Inverse folding.
């Protein structure tokens, strides 16, 4: 039996001042829908935290573009693993920010989604979003 594996990459970065997150999301949703990428983009005003998941070649190409983007610096990969089932599969790129009225609900939902993820990944997420 052949099992389909996806690659899931999880990183944080520091955003440059005045970054237009809506514009990034617009670009991301368009490209990701074409490339079979799903995930989540968290922004708290100074840092990004993003999960991208999908076929290995799509994730590699997308991350290469993202890593070269001058709208953020200091990228740090927190987790890079193979997964059998998408964990953020409902969104071509879900937005999550602390400024949303339902910010806490979004966090709770993400934590539920990461329930099966390795402890190290969940801890990294908790640390990044607690800043
Ligand atoms: C924090 C951050 C997250 C991004 N996430 C994505 C993404 O999920 N998918 C994507 O295609 N581009 C993403 N981008 C944008 C890419 O770096 C790049 O600008 C874009 O893919 C180029 O698209 P275009 O060739 O259609 O103009 C992101 C950029 C930043 C700064």
């Amino acid at each position: 039996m052949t099992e389909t594996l996806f690659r899931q990459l999880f990183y944080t970065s520091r955003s440059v001042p005045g970054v237009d997150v809506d514009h990034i999301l617009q670009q991301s949703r368009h490209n990701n829908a074409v490339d079979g990428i799903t995930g989540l983009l968290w922004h708290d005003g100074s840092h990004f935290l993003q999960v991208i998941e999908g076929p290995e070649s799509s994730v590699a190409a997308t991350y290469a573009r993202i890593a070269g983007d001058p709208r953020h610096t200091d990228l740090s990969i927190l987790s890079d693993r193979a997964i059998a089932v998408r964990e953020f599969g409902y969104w071509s790129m879900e937005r999550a920010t602390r400024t949303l009225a339902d910010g806490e609900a979004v966090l709770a939902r993400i934590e539920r989604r990461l329930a099966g993820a390795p402890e190290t990944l969940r801890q990294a997420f908790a640390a990044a979003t607690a800043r």
Remarks:
- The domain at 6-129 is CATH 3.30.70.100 (Alpha-Beta Plaits).
- The two ends are 44 Å apart (CA to CA).
